[in-house]
Design a protein that fits this description.
Mean pLDDT: 92
GO molecular function: oxidoreductase activity, acting on the CH-OH group of donors, NAD or NADP as acceptor
Number of strands: 3
Order of helices and strands: HEHEHHHE
Family: Belongs to the short-chain dehydrogenases/reductases (SDR) family.
Shape: elongated
Keywords: NADP
Strand content: 5-15%
Length: about 150
């Protein structure tokens, strides 16, 4: 909780303070906050109570930040990554990613793992002028996992 929730809280707080000191751009925007939650903020996952609670806190906090800052030219959103081919997933599977990969992929509607670039592209969108009217959402970048 200290890192996942408090760290995001402090990062959002100090970003917002800086954004509010800035003059708005021509489109009225002062800044974009993009936080990282997790698919487990939408669905539970056995054995990950603390992690799930911390990522749920990030999603809820982001919605509230979005409401607090909406009229001030700052939008806030978060991304909820799904199973992505990273060292974190391999560690979560006890180093058995190669052995468990097919079983994990079977529960993902797209049938493939995501990659860090998928989440980066979502963040770039949410921090762009194209998303200036998008605020308070959790964008699931998970191959359709939580849509089930």
């Amino acid at each position: 909780m200290r890192i996942n929730a408090r760290g995001v809280f402090l990062g959002s707080k100090y970003s917002a303070q800086q954004f509010l000191k800035q003059e708005p751009r021509a489109n009225g925007m002062r800044g974009w906050i993009v936080n990282l939650a997790s698919m487990v903020s939408n669905i539970g996952m056995q054995g990950l109570t603390g992690y799930t609670a911390s990522k749920g806190a990030v999603a809820a906090m982001t919605r509230t930040i979005a409401l607090d800052l909406a009229k001030k030219g700052v939008v806030a959103n978060c991304i909820a990554p799904g199973f992505s081919q990273t060292a974190m997933l391999d560690n979560a599977l006890g180093g058995a990613l190669s052995d468990a990969a097919e079983g994990v992929k079977a529960v993902i509607p797209r049938g493939i793992f995501g990659h860090p670039i998928d989440h980066a592209r979502a963040a770039v969108y949410l921090a762009s002028d194209d998303a200036q009217w998008v605020t308070g959402i959790t964008l699931n970048v998970d191959g359709g996992l939580v849509a089930q």
